[in-house]
From TrEMBL, chains A, B:
<feature type="domain" description="HTH arsR-type">
    <location>
        <begin position="23"/>
        <end position="101"/>
    </location>
</feature>
<dbReference type="InterPro" id="IPR011991">
    <property type="entry name" value="ArsR-like_HTH"/>
</dbReference>
<dbReference type="InterPro" id="IPR001845">
    <property type="entry name" value="HTH_ArsR_DNA-bd_dom"/>
</dbReference>
<dbReference type="Pfam" id="PF12840">
    <property type="entry name" value="HTH_20"/>
</dbReference>
<dbReference type="InterPro" id="IPR036388">
    <property type="entry name" value="WH-like_DNA-bd_sf"/>
</dbReference>
<dbReference type="InterPro" id="IPR036390">
    <property type="entry name" value="WH_DNA-bd_sf"/>
</dbReference>
<protein>
    <submittedName>
        <fullName>Transcriptional regulator</fullName>
    </submittedName>
</protein>
<dbReference type="GO" id="GO:0003700">
    <property type="term" value="F:DNA-binding transcription factor activity"/>
</dbReference>
Length: 116, 116
DNA sequence: GCCATAGTACGACCGCCATCGAAACCGGAC
DNA sequence: GTCCGGTTTCGATGGCGGTCGTACTATGGC
């Protein structure tokens, strides 16, 4: 169907007003997904699927990224062969004030404690 | 074994420093438990098991209250025949800053939206 | 054109947790 | 003492979700 060569694959993202608190909490309750979120928050910038450090297979990781995207926590977009992921921190803050930041912060605090 | 007549049944509560973020999130991810927390937050004061409005049987409700207690979210104590429940909001705020309040707030916002 | 690389879709398995009903329990009222 | 209402424990059940491997697709480089 002569799909455009550039700006090729696009990804569906929910409007945050359509996302329920339940969805967000379910997304954040899984340890692997919280790792992903933490790594995104720490990295400061976009990471591709393969660059996450997680104790699961790639297909499982894809699954987790889908859940996070559907919960409105991350945004995904293609660039070249890679699919990049970024936190929707600002929007989340608007829709669920303090929630994502509290989780990220507590998560970081817990892992520091292990180091200290 | 000659259990003391007074100050009878006591309940074990974890120190919040022993509670993991994982535990807290698992406690808060269940809709019924979030209802309980919301009702406690709104009521302002202690509620007995039987006074919660939840679409589950009493035995299930007991189970949920146990989970919340073990996660450090609520404190329980006996008074007469009743077992009262109260939020450990202050302690939670210290250990997991912003977390419980964000969830309670978002929860309230969502139910208001249904009303509006 | 071909190949290599990155990610995805699908289907199956398995363990965990919410749920219930019924029976036991405990404290207080009488 | 006996009864009663409130709460808990136990065991069984059912469904959902995390996990994996494999087969597949798509993009970019050669």
């Amino acid at each position: 169907m002569a799909r455009p060569r550039t700006a090729a694959r696009t990804v569906e993202h929910p409007d945050l007003s359509e996302v329920s608190l339940q969805q967000v909490l379910e997304a954040l309750v899984d340890p692997v997904r919280r790792m992903v979120v933490s790594q995104l928050a720490r990295a400061g910038e976009d990471k591709s699927c393969g660059t996450f450090d997680a104790p699961v297979s790639l297909s499982t990781l894809t699954h987790h990224l889908n859940v996070l995207r559907e919960a409105g926590v991350i945004r995904q977009y293609y660039r070249g062969t890679a699919k990049l992921n970024t936190l929707r921190a600002g929007e989340m803050e608007e829709q669920f004030p303090g929630l994502l930041s509290a989780v990220v912060h507590a998560s970081a605090a817990e892992s520091e404690e292990g180091v200290a």
